[in-house]
Design goal:
Two copies of one chain form a homodimer. By secondary structure, chain A is of the alpha+beta class. Chain A has four domains: about 110 residues, Jelly Rolls; about 50 residues, no CATH class; about 250 residues, Type I PLP-dependent aspartate aminotransferase-like (Major domain) (Aspartate Aminotransferase, domain 2, 3-Layer(aba) Sandwich); about 120 residues, Aspartate Aminotransferase, domain 1. Chain A has 14 helices and 22 strands. At the A-B interface, strand 2, helix 2, helix 3, helix 4 and helix 5 of A face strand 2, helix 2, helix 3, helix 4 and helix 5 of B.
Chain lengths: ~575, ~575
């Protein structure tokens, strides 16, 4: 079997997205290298035939943006596929085909005297190797509008158009994209999205989605168990994004407090909701949409680690009660957006319990802590929560969106969400089987399929190892950052966010320097990272460890590039931007 | 060029999903038929090589559930691809590859002396040819749960599992699936979903989605123009399903009425919302979620055509005002779920205007009427609407969900939805470019890509012809139904819903007979259609014309099967169900 050169991160060959294709083995003499014969090459299409000598071993990198189809046309081959998270070995017989998904990597060797493969890939999908969105604005050839576009288009033009969409989109499959709390996808997501298109259905009724309804229940049960709730009394439902997870928490809390509001409305109920000042803005959107009013979201200050100060929470609640407000819900955050901080769940739980307040945990970003023994301490107390938001499109690299809202009050989802008037649709005698009754959406796809496949593939232990692996990367990055005079960690990370201020090359005071560096990195197509500003107005880069194949080297590359940014670069960049 | 035998509907060869593969030409003698040599066949894999004589012409049906990859390994071929909506012709050179998506159809002929193709398809994706969900319950081999599942799984087992997911899912790509207001997908949806997975992004910020943000704007502008609004003053945003389109209407109407509620909440605002008794239940969900209370959704009676009676609406509003309620919004329906009825938009518009009430049109199902000259009269008055819900996953066969919420009050989306606290994310100086500020969701994928591709492909005129084509099918079906003694049209359809009561074989009075027939059709795997019950308790089948390749014959087949159901069938079926 071929040596595995490509592990999580690929330090030897760098960023694979730019190195698509067959690679020569550096450890073999020229005479033993493969001969790659390109049979034909058109702008959109590339078909190759590859012959193997008996002793050859080759590595092929998976396509970044398309399937790579391999057909064995002579002899037999042994293949080792690296999923990043896991490696699989299989034998390929004459005539067999293998489909290699993006983000997977293959090492092949012949096991018969001669062997030959036929390789086909749609080259049109592979032009997107840049991070720079500025290219988009220079793309004068593509007309995105519909009003001014020609009446009709042939297949070839349509195909070019699809290519333009990809070519001009941001390369979020690169490990150097980390502007959002997602980066890259697992192959399972590509497969799941394909299954999704081809089994088009809604999870509203069991009749239309017998499998997906069960998968939703299976994932719900498994995660509830991780949280520490018992299966019989808890439930969950997929919602379109973490924002709606937090909306549903507000909704359930309100209905539970005032069940009559379901029919009568909530007029005259001045409820208050408490979150930390580092919480996600979706709580405000929820207060706005559900009619609480944004002013009734009360932001509690955080300590130097970005965690909610519980004594201040207690004091605020007491004060609000005296003023006639009804404290309805505390929304704790497990893994804040910028710092990756975990609120003290146990203390908050105790307070909520004694006050009779709904305790919600927004674990959209921090949910991997449920899987890892090394991180479990961060979410101690979550078992006391009334509800939890869980995202699989962030750390677990599913397609957007893949969110579960979970609650330990099983019957509440039906009580809070079932309405009359769906008789044309809901014919089932056991209403909870028709899971559309448990939520707002009617049409609802199998968002969680990719994560379910990943869990089936790796098992709980495997998922736990993945999280632990990322912690090792974090620790090594921190160690290196601390050796750098011009890099300043904004806080000691307990999770996967690295907040780093880049100091001015001449060590001048410039609070905006990191923001400037960020823009140069992006303009130079070196990295697409986000920045934030602390309470003193100091900007800093926020690097996140989330891409399934990220390596320490990727982070070091980004930070080294950040350190190399000069005053001149910044000036040129601001000129270009104007 | 080969004769096109396979048009929209395939009357000659029937339901293509079951007839995957190469087909012999009935008009050629045996000596001229192709020789199909199966090189190798494994359980999961099938690779074929096909040789062509110079004069041969063959038809190949697109794969139902996977890509079909065709490689020209000798000579040149001419191909004609039938997309159902449109036919394209192209030449395939030696070495070129063609990817055939589900729901597309190919006719090929050689244009050199000899020609050969290499065909590969992943057979595992092609087991799902049944409609019968009962098979699912007999599937004792698949363990869907995660808690009891083994710790880990190899690739082959994972692949089997993915196959099981498909095999046990409902065959919604069959034109005989019409239980929901969707059926089938356009190839553009498969392509779009693939692009979506591989350009994983959120439309929250322009930086992360330069192309998709523009596509959203392009579609919004084009549809606003169809509605009759001017581009500069209207706007729209994709939301996760028609339900959320209706939610957003309630939200915008409320914020516009009471702008201070954004920060203060809506306590003490007893608002009322008016919809017809045939409106979608999502309005009730909206009243529940947004805190209006379900009782404040007032259902207005409909006439014999299923249309809201405007005089009753006016009387109810006047009465509510006297009682101290604030009439906030009228939600008219363009295309009701069961009957496909269109409320009288012009009259409702006039009333709303004189009363100062927000006028919303739920056109989730009826939006194709905007495209067709023949149906445009049904939506006259929509130009006076304050907002519209538009679904592309119903008639236009995109993947679920693909919804646009549109409003003619351009600045309102930002006013109603922008909150502070997203500073880590929204760095843009022109807030409306970061489209996450205009809505609730943070993570939000390019739901509308498939419909945008379809529009680009066919043009406005092409989309119009598609809708007209479906009207012809409707008229032919109606004509046939009227010749049948035991079929009773519940109403003369003006749109694409066919509501048909099947009378008892012995013409006995049995209001439940159609519901029983529906269950037998499903159990026998003949069709998966929905039924409903009218105000007299009479059940009837609801057939919908929505599958991109549906034919008159498909409908006739279903109804003939329905007529063939015997009392014995019904008895056996209820025994089996117990």
């Amino acid at each position: 079997m071929g040596t595995k050169l490509y592990k999580n991160g690929y330090p030897v060959l760098g960023y694979w997205g730019k190195q698509l294709g067959w690679h020569r083995r550096p450890d073999l003499p020229n005479s033993k290298q493969p001969s790659i014969e390109t049979i034909v090459q058109t702008p959109r299409l590339e078909v190759q035939r590859l012959g193997f000598a008996p002793s050859s071993r080759y590595e092929v990198l998976g396509p970044a943006f398309a399937y790579l189809d391999l057909f064995v046309t002579e002899g037999r081959l042994r293949a080792s596929i690296d999923f990043g998270f896991k490696t699989e070995v299989c034998e390929l017989e004459l005539g067999s085909q293998m489909r290699l998904y993006p983000n997977s990597h293959l090492c092949i060797e012949p096991i018969s005297n001669t062997a030959q493969m036929f390789v086909a890939r749609v080259a049109e999908f592979e032009t997107r190797t840049e991070l720079n969105p500025s290219r988009f604005y220079q793309d004068l050839n593509t007309d995105w509008s519909l009003i001014s576009s020609p009446a009709t288009m042939n297949l070839s033009a349509l195909s070019d158009l699809a290519s333009s969409v990809i070519a001009n989109s941001i390369d979020s499959l690169s490990p150097k994209f980390m502007n959002q709390l997602y980066s890259g996808v697992i192959p399972h997501a590509i497969i799941a999205d394909n299954i999704r298109s081809q089994t088009k259905t809604t999870l509203a009724i069991q009749e239309a989605s017998p499998v997906f309804s069960q998968i939703e229940v299976a994932l719900t049960e498994a995660i509830c168990q991780l949280i520490g709730w018992s299966c019989g009394t808890s439930d969950g439902i997929s919602v379109p994004g973490g924002t709606f997870g937090n909306f549903m928490a507000l909704h359930c809390a309100r209905i539970r407090k005032w069940p009559e509001g379901k029919s009568k409305g909530f007029f005259g109920k001045p409820a208050r909701i408490y979150v930390s000042s580092e919480a996600h803005y979706s709580f405000k959107k929820g207060a706005l949409a559900l009619g609480f009013g944004i002013d009734n979201i009360v932001e509690i200050a955080t300590d130097e680690h970005g965690k909610m100060i519980v004594s201040q929470l207690a004091a605020t609640i007491a004060n609000d009660k005296r003023s006639g407000f009804v404290p309805l819900l505390v929304g704790a955050t497990a893994g804040t957006t910028v710092q990756g901080a975990f609120d003290p769940l146990e203390e908050i739980a105790r307070l909520c319990q004694s006050e009779g307040i709904w305790f919600h945990v927004d674990a959209a970003w921090g949910c991997p802590a449920l899987f890892s023994k090394k991180l479990k301490h961060l979410v101690v107390g979550i078992e006391a929560a009334d509800s939890v938001t869980f995202d699989a499109h962030k750390f677990f690299a599913s397609s957007l969106t893949a969110t579960l809202f979970l609650t330990k009050h099983k019957s509440l989802l039906l009580e809070a969400n079932d309405v009359a008037g769906g008789d044309y649709l809901f014919h089932n005698n056991t209403p909870e089987s028709d899971r559309g009754r448990l939520t707002w959406q009617c049409g609802r796809g199998p968002d969680l399929l990719a994560f379910w496949l990943l869990w089936k593939h790796l098992g709980l232990q495997g998922l736990s190892e993945v999280v632990d692996h990322f912690l090792v990367i974090q620790q090594e990055c921190v160690k290196w950052i601390q050796t750098q005079q011009r890099l300043k960690l904004m806080h000691q990370p307990e999770y996967l966010n690295l907040c780093v201020e880049v100091l001015h090359p001449q060590m001048k005071t410039d609070n905006e320097w990191s923001a400037k560096v960020r823009r140069v990195l992006k303009a130079k197509n070196q990295a697409f990272v986000n920045y934030s500003t602390n309470s003193e107005g100091v900007t800093f880069l926020r690097l996140i460890l989330v891409h399934p194949h990220i390596s320490v080297q990727n982070i070091l590359d980004i930070l080294n590039d950040a350190l190399s940014v000069t005053v001149d670069d910044v000036n040129k960049n601001s000129l270009a931007a104007t």
